[in-house]
Amino acid sequence: MTTSTAPVGALLREWRERRRLSQLELSNRTAVSTRHLSWIETGRSRPTAQMILRLADDLEVPLRERNAMLLAAGFAPAYPQHGLDDPELADVRDALRAVLAAHLPHPALLLDRHWDLVEANAAATALLDGCAPHLLVAPVNVLRVSLHPDGLAPRIANLPQWRAHLLGQVRRRAERTGDPALGALLDELTGYGGGTAEEPGPGAVVVPLRLRTADGELALFSLAAHVTTAADVTVEELVVETFHPADAATAAALRRLGTG
User: Fold this and answer.
1) CA of 84: how far to CAs of 179, 230, 235, in Å?
2) Domain 8-72 listed as CATH 1.10.510.10
3) Where are the domains of the chain?
4) Which of 33, 199, 221, 243: disulfide with 206, CB 3.0–4.6 Å?
């Protein structure tokens, strides 16, 4: 659970400013008067739990941070946070694992909010051959594995382009969530270097990961999915990232790797 010593009004103002909304704009969206919003933000008025959740929902505040707001105001958290192996998450867990298994022979990952690996299918783990053991000690961060000089980076044929894509993802999530751990991760990944990105080639429709393997160069593009109806902190923060062949040669190579 994220904790904060800031009062709830300051937290709400921080999220409003992060979403680049004025008090008037938020007032129009939520039907809460600007005067009342101002009093909440300055601490002159103590919001109810319902008001906090109403504003947080419109500001698209993550469930983890909504709980932190409630705690800052003296209320109990509204959203549970179970472990993935807890009985309460059995149906979600089974569904996510079924997605990973069904995606074979193509790689698929289950990640948390910091891109730490939760689970992966066999096709994904097979691509990690040659990475330094210290990068594969849990919790395994897939971005660190991708861009570290002892990881996949030497085998990524279009490293500058793929690096720019990954750094952009981290930067946008850090800005959207305000998570300081993501800011630290971005600084770390940037420090690895890797060149300046080039524009995608003429006619390109995706930015591929071009990975050199013993079976030849694989060209992969990724899709990300999450549980859109999550009411649990853990479930909301899980992301399934699936990789798909960007050309026929890669599709054939992945089929060969799968049968092997």
Assistant:
1) 21, 13, 8
2) no
3) 8-72, 87-259
4) 221
Q: Which of 93, 126, 124 is nearest to 108 (CA)?
A: 124
Q: How far apart are CA 78 and CA 71, in angstroms?
A: 10
- Before 139, cis peptide (omega within 30)? yes
Token couple for 162: 């793929």
Assess contact for 248 and 216: CB atoms under 8 A.
no
Structure tokens at 137: 């000690």
Q: Model pTM greater than 0.85?
A: yes
Structure tokens at 120: 């992966």
Candidates 117, 116, 131; CA nearest to 185 is 116
DSSP result, 43-74 = TSS---HHHHHHHHHHTT--HHHHHHHHHHTT
| Count of other CB atoms within 10 angstroms of residue 126 | 16
Q: Which fold has domain 87-259?
A: Beta-Lactamase (3.30.450)
CB-hemisphere CA count at 13 Å for 30? Answer: 24
Q: Let me know how long the chain is.
A: 260
pLDDT, tens digit, for every residue of 196-252?
766 555 567 888 999 999 889 999 999 999 999 999 999 999 999 999 999 999 999
Residues 252, 249: Cα–Cα separation, whole Å: 5
